[in-house]
Amino acid sequence: MRAEYDFSGAVRSKHAAAYRQGHSVTIHKKDGTTLVEHFTLDENAVVIDPDVRQYFPDAKSVNDALRPLIAIASKPGTRTRKISSKTKRSPATYKTK
Prior knowledge:
Blueprint: H1 16-21, E1 23-28, E2 34-39, H2 50-53, H3 59-73
Antiparallel strand pairs: 1-2
């Protein structure tokens, strides 16, 4: 990054919520016409939070981490409990045996 770029006042993920809902780009052409294009995330796209992204920088790392969990959860006799998406828990509140 060049020294003249100053991001000291920047806010991380400022537009993330709006981006997830979709966004439009307006293109003003030289001939005076205007083109508006609408973009949305793919149906199976997932946006991860910045604090999680520091551990999983790309799709491969996320998939590699989740596959063993899927294998454990898929074993017969394994009980899984669904946590409501409305329930926000910090990692410190999870109990380990």
